[in-house]
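> call design_seq(struct)
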């Protein structure tokens, strides 16, 4: 993935806006900083999970199942929850099953129906891994007050609502 390492200074963005009438310098600056931070977070997260033998996708499946670890979830529900195709989810579940982190259980009344469950190995892994993981997340957000964190969630929710503007035309 190509990452933007050099974000232009506001003055550079402002000068560019004189050439392009629709350019809003403050919107461009905020967008580029958000994109840079999101990319840095994803790269750091992928690297951290990779050192523990997980991809973001595999870890996400474990976290989705860990919401209610006693209850299984169908592969199609997992795909919907993760925002991936069913084929992608099948590959993730296959690899987690191969490594002993999940099991597939067939419904005795409908053999076509399958639910995915965490194994004891997965629960043990999460029990040991998540406290450190959550401390790292707290460290990322440590420079923000509780009030700033709430405000950030509100602001990012507003940005999320505007994403459809990138799909226009």
């Amino acid at each position: 993935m190509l990452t933007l390492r050099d974000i232009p200074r506001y003055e550079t963005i402002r000068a560019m806006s004189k050439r392009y009438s629709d350019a809003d310098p403050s919107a461009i600056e905020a967008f580029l900083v958000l994109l840079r931070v999101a990319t840095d977070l994803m790269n750091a997260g992928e690297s951290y999970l990779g050192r523990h033998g997980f991809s973001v996708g595999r870890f996400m499946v474990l976290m989705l199942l860990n919401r209610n670890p006693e209850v299984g979830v169908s592969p199609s529900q997992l795909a919907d929850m993760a925002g991936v195709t069913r084929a992608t989810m099948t590959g993730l579940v296959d690899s987690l099953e191969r490594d002993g982190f999940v099991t597939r259980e067939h419904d005795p009344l409908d053999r076509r129906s399958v639910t995915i469950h965490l194994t004891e190995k997965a629960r043990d892994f999460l029990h040991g891994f998540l406290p450190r993981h959550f401390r790292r997340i707290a460290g990322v957000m440590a420079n923000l007050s509780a009030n700033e964190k709430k405000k950030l969630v509100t602001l990012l929710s507003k940005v999320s609502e505007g994403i459809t503007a990138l799909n226009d035309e």
